[in-house]
Amino acid sequence: MRVKNSVLAAFFCLAAGTGSLLLPLAGRAAGEPQAPAASQHLLTAAAPSTMLNVVEGVLHNRTLYEALTACHIPPAEILSLSRSFKPVFDFRSAQPKDVYQVSVDNQHLIQKFVYKTSPMDEYEAIKNEKGGYNVHKRDIVLEHRQEAKVFTIETSLYEAVTDSGEDRVIAGMIADIFAWDIDFYLYPRKGDRIAVVYERCYKDGVFVKYGKILAARYAGKQKTFSAFLFNDGRFDGYYDETGQPLKKMFLRTPLKFGKMTSGFSIRRFHPVSKRYKAHTGIDYGAPMGTPIMATGNGRVTFAGWKGGYGKLLIVKHANGYETYYGHCSRLLKKPGQLVEQSEVIARVGSTGISTGPHVHYEVRVSGKPINPNKVKKSRGKPLSPELLAKFRPILDERLAMVESLLEEKTSLVMLMQND
């Protein structure tokens, strides 16, 4: 009997191509004892023609194969389940915190199997008439609540958001919306305030993720910027009070957050060569590996090593524009590939002639370097009169919300449940 089981286990490993199911998950040392079956919860459910045992558990430091064989499920049955799952989920990506629920009959054959990798990712398998399984990813219905809050900048947008108790994700979303108008490395001043109306998504009363930002107003000492979400019948987009889209040909910077370490100059003292020379771009310092974004739509024309630039990626845009991204640690695109604005194309590094991790961002027109801060920011088409009429009621409601927030001397939080 032991020989037979060993043969079945080996057959399962080879046929499924998922040998990692038989290996310990990361985090358990070799020889460490297997998690006891007592950590599972055993339930019994009534079915029309048979009794089903329902076992729920967390993988912890076991493989799924180990967890299911502990339920006395035959290896061939686990093989069939694994094969059926492959189009929607590969168990080689299993993590220790993943949750499973298996319903077996009195012969220990799987009739239903549920696998959860996160609150938003649940997979279900139901045994079919052919003995295999119909597998699908469950549709998760979330409850959306609107929240409105003011973030006051003392040092940075990131700290303003996290100090208020919100996640850094919100800071990134705000930066994305105003990326065409505000350089968050240079523009913010102490005391600037940002009123934001955004969604928080819940499942069974538990917060799962952030939804969309519905409205935002940046009240700076120099200028005020506004953004209101609106769907033109095809795509969501952000518009100002007049119906002008915020999206422009180029982003202000290739990084969401960081620090400008060197500006554009026709005569700068170079820290490595120790002599004066032109600096044909802007340097943004950031931690090693920070994502670098394409500042505009275009096609990659060069990706490789280029002298003092180190690992360099060049993107060609419309109207003779080119953007350079130098000193990268990794290049994520190849020549000939199309890239979209805000798409991650490389990672911050310190290759070539460099004193530390940063990206050298350069803009050229017809081969001639120009100051990236002086690039003309052409906008898209404004809303048509028909769409503007639909936009106006949404604008009036959300504009009143952000204005009332900014009138308050302290942060104001309003919770509203969507219908």
Radius of gyration from the alpha-carbon trace, in angstroms: 28 Å
Characterize the overall form.
Answer: globular
**Structural class designation:** alpha+beta
Strand content: 35-45%
The level of helicity is 10-25%
The parts where pLDDT drops under 50 for at least 5 residues are: 1-49, 410-417
Terminal-residue CA separation: 60 Å
Largest sheet: 8 strands, antiparallel
Summed over residues and divided by their number, the pLDDT gives a mean of 82
Number of DSSP helices?
Answer: 6
Structure write-up:
The chain has helices at 2-16, 64-69, 75-85, 157-163, 168-177, 385-407, and strands at 41-46, 51-58, 99-104, 110-118, 121-127, 133-137, 143-152, 193-203, 206-219, 224-231, 236-239, 259-262, 265-269, 276-279, 282-285, 291-293, 298-305, 311-316, 321-328, 330-331, 338-339, 344-347, 358-365, 368-370, 414-417. The protein is built from 6 helices and 25 strands. Residues 1-49 and 410-417 have low confidence and may be disordered. With 419 residues, the protein is of the alpha+beta class. The strands form 5 sheets. Strands 12, 15, 17, 18, 19, 21, 23 and 24 form an 8-stranded antiparallel beta sheet that branches. A 6-stranded antiparallel beta sheet has the order 1-2-3-4-5-6, covered by helices on one side. A 6-stranded antiparallel beta sheet has the order 11-10-9-8-7-25, with helices on both faces. The protein starts with a helix and ends with a strand.
